[in-house]
Specification:
The protein has one domain (11-404): MFS general substrate transporter like domains (Growth Hormone, Chain: A, Up-down Bundle). It contains 19 helices and no strands. It has helices at residues 3-6, 11-32, 38-45, 49-77, 80-97, 101-119, 122-132, 135-166, 169-181, 183-187, 193-199, 208-216, 219-248, 253-281, 283-303, 308-321, 326-337, 342-371, 375-393. Helix 2 packs antiparallel against helix 7 (122-132), helix 7 (122-132) runs antiparallel to helix 8 and helix 7 (122-132) packs antiparallel against helix 18 (342-371). The longest helix has 32 residues, at 135-166. The chain is globular, with a radius of gyration of 20 Å. Residues 1-5, 196-201 and 399-405 have low confidence and may be disordered.
Length: 405
């Protein structure tokens, strides 16, 4: 059936859209629920909060380093087998983490899960959809993937907490490993049409080296990449340390799980709104707005007394802004350079995000270890977020797509 007969929403696009949303939902839900295991692992194995935080920092750095290379491979050969192999790696990482101790935590929860997430997250999945979708529906399709992907935390976080409460934290990690393995079957739904979409006559061919060189000479790309550091720094600090922070404030573990679930639920709406605003205002201004609102929410949470109500309100606000950066960042890359090398270019930009994530997770653990609290970490989030908003405001509004010039 031809595209003219079905419109831009072809069966191949719709099937891949569903598969990408499910995989992203599971990948992000599993990863963002790992903070729930900090307290039982610290209590049961004797590892420190700093050790756990450093393992999560290693995970994010491995994700960032692996993303450009994995993205470039998927640009050239497609994502189906890469995603399937990463799902196996994801399950293995969770299983190794359940062995307890620093080595299992660094290797499983750090390196293996980090590389696995690189192939089961936005850099690969949004790239697949970008190559399949026609320009008229590309931004909408990307927003849908990011929105559906955020719902995993809403389901996985309470499920993980229930498994910890009713089983053991080791058994809970085993259950999460099985969820990760299920992504293998979902990945088989991807079609090779994504390669044909960029390989048709007259379309740009994947060339990661040339595309990266061109991007690194582009001022808008460089500034957005630098500002993206703040996104990783803020979000991974919160995902890793919020459960422990509110536990220190006397709240039960279920509040941490509910907060992470609320982040996932509210993010679905926030991502769709961000996609809509990008089409009206442009990608750069929306990114600056997101960084500003996140920083305001963090500052407010630091000032008010911590309670169940304020924690859930903070989670809702952060959730609305959590993955809402995906539509503007993806739109900026596609707008400046087109979709052929999206995976490689997103990977380069995302490396900055993950350096921020590494430092956010690690700083949180060090802040707790040396001061017994998280005040230094929270204040750092405010400084970094304010700087990112100012940087992003200096970016000129979006250039037209190369293919449309």
């Amino acid at each position: 059936m031809s595209k003219s007969a079905t419109g831009p929403w072809t069966p191949t696009l719709l099937i891949s859209l569903g598969a990408a949303g499910l995989i992203l939902s599971l990948s992000m839900g599993l990863r963002q629920s790992l903070g729930l295991f900090m307290e039982p692992m610290v209590r049961g194995t004797g590892i420190t909060v700093a050790t756990f935080g450093f393992a999560m920092a290693v995970q994010n750095l491995a994700w960032g380093i692996g993303q450009p290379f994995i993205g470039a491979i998927c640009d050239r050969f497609g994502g189906r087998l890469v995603v399937a192999a990463a799902a196996v790696l994801y399950g293995a990482g969770l299983y190794i983490t359940s062995s307890g101790g620093p080595v299992g935590l660094y290797l499983g929860g750090g390196l293996l899960i980090g590389f696995a997430v690189a192939a089961t997250s936005h850099g690969v999945l949004v790239g697949i959809i970008s190559r399949l979708a026609a320009p008229s529906v590309r931004a909408t399709a990307i927003s849908i993937v990011a929105a559906v992907g955020s719902l995993g935390t809403f389901i996985v976080a309470p499920t993980a907490q229930a498994m910890i409460d009713n089983w053991t934290w080791q058994a809970a990690l085993g259950g999460m490993a099985l969820l990760a393995a299920s992504m293998v079957g979902i990945a088989m739904l991807f079609r090779r049409g994504e390669i044909q979409a960029t390989g048709r006559e007259g379309a740009p061919q994947p060339d990661a080296r040339r595309a990266i060189a061109e991007a690194l000479a582009n001022r808008s790309f460089i500034i957005t990449t630098l500002a993206f550091f703040a996104c990783g720094f803020q979000l991974i600090f919160i995902a890793t340390h919020l459960p422990n922070y509110i536990a220190l404030c006397g709240l039960p573990p279920s509040v941490g799980a509910n907060a992470l679930a609320l982040i996932g639920l509210c993010n679905a709406g926030g991502t769709l709104v961000a996609g809509y605003l990008c089409r009206r205002w442009g990608n750069g201004p929306v990114l600056a707005l997101i960084y500003s609102l996140r920083t305001i929410a963090i500052a407010a949470f630091l000032i008010v007394p911590v309670s169940v109500e304020t924690t859930l309100l903070f989670a809702a606000a952060m959730g609305f802004l959590w993955l809402s950066v995906v539509p503007p960042v993806s739109g900026l890359i596609n707008g400046l350079f087109g979709p052929a090398n999206f995976g490689a270019l997103f990977g380069v930009m995302f490396l900055s995000h993950q350096v921020g994530a590494f430092l956010g997770a690690w700083l949180g653990g060090l802040s707790y270890q040396f001061s017994g609290g998280y005040s230094v970490g929270w204040l750092s989030l405010i400084v970094v977020g304010t700087t990112a908003a100012a940087l992003q405001l200096s970016v000129r509004n979006d250039a037209p797509r190369l293919s449309e010039r």
